[in-house]
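Progress report, Aim 2. The chain analyzed during this reporting quarter is listed below.
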Amino acid sequence: QVQLVESGGGLVQAGGSLRLSCAASGSDFSRNVMRWYRQAPGKQREFVAIISSGGNSNYAESVKGRFTISRDNAKNTAYLQMNSLKPEDTAVYYCNTKDLLKDYWGQGTQVTVSS
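Predicted structure tokens for the chain:
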């Protein structure tokens, strides 16, 4: 059973930075594709970023150039470095991975960006 635990959220002013972490257990992390999603109040959960097992990444247009996804396979951890934060980035951020059977989600970490 895969378990994901996010951390690193908080309150930051617009223009600031945060780094989120997603610690994984229960799987061969180095083989997992890892994703970050976010959900703002009253909105659907949306895709933010993805990183393959080989380190290739892709981003939602809304965060491209500001956010960077990375991974440390030795620590079984994925990261989301968020720079130049905007109030519209305020949301609960979730990490995600999948196997043949199901999706796995963490509990989420709150990011609040004040204007």
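The chain has a mean pLDDT of 96. The radius of gyration is 13 Å. These observations will guide the mutagenesis work planned for the next reporting period.
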